[in-house]
């Protein structure tokens, strides 16, 4: 009996061992299958992601690549399907002709003086207003801030006529009307075709996209520690000195973000410049009138202007217009990305 029980026990043990081995093998197969599926899905996602990135990059870079390739080719290559991306004949004549027709040095200096000063004025005013909304309490604060945000969605075409009339008959705080009581008519200034049509709104926080910049500064200052402000008050700093000495130096990322955005928007502006300027030519205005300049030059010389030549020259003008902004972003890309992340605009 004992021998029989021992034999049966050994058989049961071997059977249980076989079952456990079978289960282990089955589990290993399932694990391998899961790992294989996971590896394959990862590889497939890498391939799909690569194609998506290439596709999106091509869509974004296509205009820039087209401008560059058309600007440096001769007009005969426009009709050559084999030289669509890489021209057979590379030339800088188009860029030189557009450079001279746009009077690029003068237009570039006018744009730099106008945009940099407007950007700095807007930077100061928007930072001050954003700091006030973030740190101080006053009646109807939320209502006023809502009106500031509302200016972001108001199209410029809606207010351009009142602005034009205001700059044509500019009256400083109503002083012209008061003087009119003594001189018989209101004393006003004509600010049209002067840089003050950009400087005055920027200084008073009503420049291009000022509502957005006030919102950025307000959100950034709200996220800063109140202990910094209270410590400055304890050390004897006033409200303005606290802003200049303590809060502003700690808001460098927000200042960089607003400076770059404001500079780019002022550089690309055509609508306000075309409405307010007649003699002052910016780069955007020079580009808009480039076609007319070439037509006038051809008519003056009694020459026929080839449409294909005109296309290459216009694209060269576009290249000259975007080149400074492209170089600016190329050198400040690191600071730009870091400032965007720290101000919380991403997403």
What is this entry, summarized?
This protein has 347 residues and is mostly helical. Helix content is 76%, strand content 0%. The chain has two domains: 2-71; 102-288, MetI-like (MetI-like fold, Orthogonal Bundle), CATH 1.10.3720.
Protein traits:
mainly alpha; single chain; MetI-like fold; 76% helix; 2 domains; 15 helices; 347 residues
Q: How much of the sequence is in beta strands? A: under 5%
| CATH superfamily grouping of the largest domain | MetI-like
Strand pairing plus helix content: what structural class? mainly alpha
The ordered H/E elements are HHHHHHHHHHHHHHH
Here the CATH topology of the largest domain equals: MetI-like fold
Q: How many H/I helical runs?
A: 15
As an assembly, this protein is single chain
Give the low-pLDDT segments.
1-5
Specify the overall morphology. flat
User: What's the total number of strands?
Assistant: 0
Main beta-sheet annotation: none
Terminus-to-terminus distance: 79 Å
Rg of Cα set? 33 Å
Specify the helix fraction band. Answer: over 70%
| Arithmetic mean pLDDT | 82
- Number of domains as seen in the coordinates: 2
State the CATH architecture of the largest domain. Orthogonal Bundle
Q: CATH first level of the largest domain: which class? A: Mainly Alpha
């Amino acid at each position: 009996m004992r021998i029989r029980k021992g034999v049966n026990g050994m058989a049961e043990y071997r059977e249980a061992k076989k079952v456990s081995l079978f289960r282990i093998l089955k589990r290993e197969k399932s694990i391998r299958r899961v790992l294989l599926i996971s590896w394959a899905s990862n590889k497939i996602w890498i391939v799909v992601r690569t194609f998506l990135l290439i596709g999106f990059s091509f869509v974004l870079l296509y205009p820039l690549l087209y401008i560059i390739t058309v600007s440096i080719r001769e007009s005969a290559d426009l009709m050559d399907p084999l030289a669509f991306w890489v021209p057979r004949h590379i030339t800088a004549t188009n860029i030189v002709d557009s450079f001279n027709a746009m009077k690029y040095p003068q237009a570039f200096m006018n744009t730099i003086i106008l945009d940099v000063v407007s950007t700095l004025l807007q930077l100061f005013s928007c930072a001050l207003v954003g700091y006030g909304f973030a740190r101080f309490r006053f009646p109807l604060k939320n209502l006023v801030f809502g009106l500031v945000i509302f200016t972001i969605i108001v199209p410029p075409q809606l207010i351009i006529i009142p602005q034009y009339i205001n700059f044509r008959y500019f009256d400083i705080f109503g002083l012209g009307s008061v003087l009119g009581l003594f001189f018989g008519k209101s004393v006003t200034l004509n600010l049209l075709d002067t840089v003050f049509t950009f400087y005055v709104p920027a200084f008073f926080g009503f420049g291009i996209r000022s509502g957005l910049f006030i919102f950025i500064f307000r959100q950034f200052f709200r996220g800063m520690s109140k202990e910094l402000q209270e410590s400055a008050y304890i050390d004897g700093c006033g409200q303005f000195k606290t802003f200049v000495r303590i809060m502003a130096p700690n808001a460098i990322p927000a200042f960089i973000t607003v400076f770059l955005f404001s500079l780019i928007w002022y550089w690309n502006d055509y609508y306000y410049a075309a409405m307010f300027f007649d003699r002052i030519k910016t780069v955007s205005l020079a580009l808009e009138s480039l076609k007319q300049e070439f037509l006038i030059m051809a008519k003056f010389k009694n020459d026929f202007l080839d449409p294909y030549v005109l296309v290459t020259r216009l694209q060269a003008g576009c290249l000259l217009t975007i080149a400074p902004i492209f170089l600016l972003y190329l050198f400040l890309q690191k600071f730009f990305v870091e400032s965007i992340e720290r101000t919380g605009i991403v997403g």
